[in-house]
Design goal:
The protein is mainly alpha-helical and about 220 residues long. It is built from nine helices and two strands; from the N terminus they run E-E-H-H-H-H-H-H-H-H-H. Strand 1 and strand 2 (about 15-20) form a beta hairpin. It comes from Nostoc paludosum FACHB-159. InterPro entries: DUF2301 (IPR019275). It holds the Pfam family DUF2301.
Amino acid sequence: MTTQTLPVPQVYQGQFGEFTITSHDRTGVIIYRAGLIIAALSFAVGSGLVLLNNNPTVINILTPLYTCFILALGVSLFTIHIYMIILHRMLQIFWAIGTIASVILALSTSEPLAVTVYNQPITLFGVGFVFVALTGIYFKEAFCFNRLETKVLTPIVPLLLLGHLVGVLPIQWEGVLLGIWATFFLVFALRKTVQPIPADIGDKSVFTYLKEQRLAKV
């Protein structure tokens, strides 16, 4: 009769002490990355339909694709590891505001959501919060991992949305920026799948230290 032994968890040395990475931590990272993949694929398909297909019927497909994108992004925002809890909560709040605005807009107009947003740029003051949250992820990834694609994405998203909002971008340039955004978003999400999982978890001793600091102030 043999006795099965559990593998000894690897101990990491953090800035404020030692820590281990649990199966729960790893599952959270996998869910975070899966959300990014689904969001990126949905965005890429929708962008491709807009840029490469002149058939007006494809506009109706954009709403379910956007729904898939926004839900997947929400999952990623609730499983991402960010040291500053206030920043994490802000990104989640931005996503919630944008999601609620999108739902209200979709239910209050008879035309497809994409058409409404494109023809009425002022709606970006509500819907645009979703993309503020997405840009927050790009910025975090660019800061933590120095990835080229996230360095490109971080300025492109506000440039495209603000440019459309104030009406300074020609339609050709909007198409170019949208194509770059969709391509680099997909590259970013795919590259995350081969990145070591502990990198996305970060230094857990920092999370513990910051939590202790918050509790000490209560």
